[in-house]
Each structure stands twice: as C-alpha cells, then as structure tokens.
Amino acid sequence: MIIYFADRDLEILGHASTTLPAGYRISDDLTVESVDTGVNTFQCVISYTDETRAELEDAVQVGSFILKQSSAGDADNIYDSLYQIIETEFDTKTQEITLYAEDAGLELINTLCPAVTLTGNIESMMRYFLPSDWLLNFEDVPDTTRTYTWDGESTATERLMSVANLFGCEIYYSFIIDRLQVEAKVVNVTEKRGNQEAVPQLRLNYDLDRIYTKKSIADLVTAFNVTGGTPEGSDTPISLVGYSYTYTDPVTRDVYSVDTVTGQMRNTSAMARWSSVIDDDGLWVGSYSFDTTDQSVLAGQARAQLQKESQIAVNYEVDFSKLPDDIQIGDRINIIDEQGELYLEARLLQIETCVADDKKTAIIGEYILRDSGISAKVAQLASDFASLVQDPAYTLEITSSAGDVFKTTTVATTLTAHVFLFGTELSPQAVSNIGTIKWYNHDDLTTVLGTGMTYTITEAMNIDAINMTARLES
Question: Is the pLDDT of residue 429 over 90?
Fold first, then answer.
C-alpha cells in the first residue's frame, strides 16, 4: 500500500508505503469501512529519523489530506479515497507518528447545523444540510415526503445520517479523483449498500480463520411498559391499557400480546423460556415510547422493538483467511462452520483492513440462521433429485490424497468427492440434503463399494490398479 500526503490545495508533499524499500515506512495501519456511520476511517504509524522528522511533520499536519486506494480501487490501481487528517501524535522516543483520518473530512464534521423543522423528500432534506460543492448520488431511494424536527445543534455528518435513517436508507462518501486531483465530492444514498443476494459462501478454516461468537442476556427484556404521544387537549400520553393485540412471529413462532390491565406488550413465549425456580413468570420489563396517538400504531411499533430485545443478543466477528476481491462492505454472505453446525447468512456491517499484517476482520449483522447446509435452495431442490442429476449446473470431481500413480507399491490413498453447483463447491451437509455419494469400480457399476464423501484404498486390499467412479445418487 502506498499513500500520498497532500496539502489543502492537494499539492503532493510526499508518500509512505508498507512495502517500498525507500521512503517512509507504514506500520500498524487500519482502514475501517462502516455501514452504520457511512464514514471510513484510516489510521497508521509512520517511522521517521532525526533527518526526516521536519519534512514528515510538514507533510502530515492536521487538516491536510491523504490519498489512498479503497478496497474497490485496489485491483485497478486507482487512487479513489480522500481522507483528511484529524489527529496526529508524535513520539520522540520511538521516532514514530500516529495519525488518524476520516474520509468525510472536517468540512462536514465541523459544520454545525442548528435546530430546524423540515418537510420534504430525502433529496431536499439532504441538500439543506449539505455544502453546495458536494454532489448527491441516489440509488433506489423512496419517493416519499416526511416532516421532522431536529432539536439543538449537530454536525452535518450527523444530520445527513439522521435524514438517511428517517427514510430507511444508508449513505457513504466517495470522491472522483483524476491524476491525483479531486474532481468531485459525493454523498451516495442507497436503500441498502452492497449486494443483498447472499451469494458468496465462506467456510471456517478455508476462507475464514476464526469465528468469534458473543452471547448476552444483559439487556434482554420480555415485556415493555409502553407510552405514546399526548393527544391534543390532554396532559396524559396514551398507553395500551384496554387495547387487545396478538401477533405470532412467522419465523420464531413467538407470541406477542398486550396485557389489557397493565398495558404491557409481552412476548409470552420468551416469558415461558426464561421462567425458572427463582423467577416463576419470566417477566423482565423494560420501557418503550413512540410519538403517536394511535394505539394500533403504538402496539405495532412496540412489538417490532420487543422482537429485537426479547431475544438473546448474539454478535459474530470473523477473521478472513482470504476475502474474495468481489466482496465489499454491505454485501450479504453465507458463513459456514460445519463442525459447529453454524450455517449463517449475514451482512458485512464493518470491515477492518490491515495491509501491513495482511489481515481483514469483519463485524457482521442482520443474521438469518439456516437449519442446515449452505443454502435453503439446495434443500428445496433435493425433492426433485432426478432432474438435478441431469442438470449440467452440478458437477462432481474426485481428488486423491496420494496421487494416481503408484510405481513401487500397491494402491494406497484416500479419494474425496467434491460436488459443485455452478462452479461453487457444496459442503458435505449440503450434499447430504441432495443425496448420497456412492463409490464403484468403474468396471462394475452395480456393486457399491462404499458411501460418503471419501473412500479409502489401503495396501492391505492388494490392488495394483483400479478405475473408481463416484456418483451422487438419491
């Protein structure tokens, strides 16, 4: 990785690298891409000598800029990311400087927006808070009008994020750079950033080095005390007392209902799960409020929030052994831990990249747990196996642990079958959802020698030569 330092007029002042033999050397670099904030950050440590200290101090002053490649720009060697240096720390003992930069820059971070009430669509609201020299790029955003009031002051980046959340959208920043000159500054607004099809399939001990799972019930509740807005002419906000409501989650089958006496929104299924000898009713109560005077709206909003807070909080963090070049922040992916029987569809909410250590770590969220296999589509197709075996989208290959030529000994090896769907290898669990691997001597396709993903030939079998065939059969 090479980064360029530039002054506020974008005149190049120098560069640093993780690999070049001459010049400033980068270590402990970290680029963080985040869906939640839409802001990318970059930090690193740069070493200097007594002779180069003054030059480096001039190049990395706070407020100056850094030009670098984004993960999307690496393959084409395009410098498409512009960061503004927010903080620097010089250490004379270690002769190192630590710098921290953000791609939204001080222009938006230091721009304070006053309290205001706006009515309009997403474009008009964002344009109100965005400096005139920034461009807006919209993709699949809702064409609706809303009214919203912002109390107090907040930064332009916070207001832009608030508008995006109001319309159910996400934002991120990009720059059009030509010959190391910034041609345009862009705020991109989209309903969902990244590919939402969950096509990539990443396996533990292959694509993934580690899956870190954290579970917590510290903030779990099974019921809400609910309050709404205050009707005109009244001093008391509405509640759900006396309101009848029942809802069954189609996925978890949890039952949500309103206790008409207390007005509490309860997950009665979760209450049953968490009842115990020291807590006979499992009633763990939190509070929820929503500004509406309509009880039906209030009940729906309270139930939607309780659906989130009445479940065990599970967070996953993954370390990549290798991250395919075509996977970007916001994409949905499939995470497979076959030994732990974890089949998880998730979204990449944050990617942390360290080029110096050749390491990528991701925080994933918006989970969908699968019962088995890599994809529900495979299980759905299993019932129609007869047509699948004729489908050229499925292929089977065999590998041998000891090769296929044995000059001085009898055959001794382990054969492994690999099943592919459109060029992507399926897990053993996914294969079992379709059928069974059966092994044959190619000269006798009526006698099954073995079943399963592997077949072992030992020297004790005293086989000099054999042609093996593996079939995936229902």
Answer: no
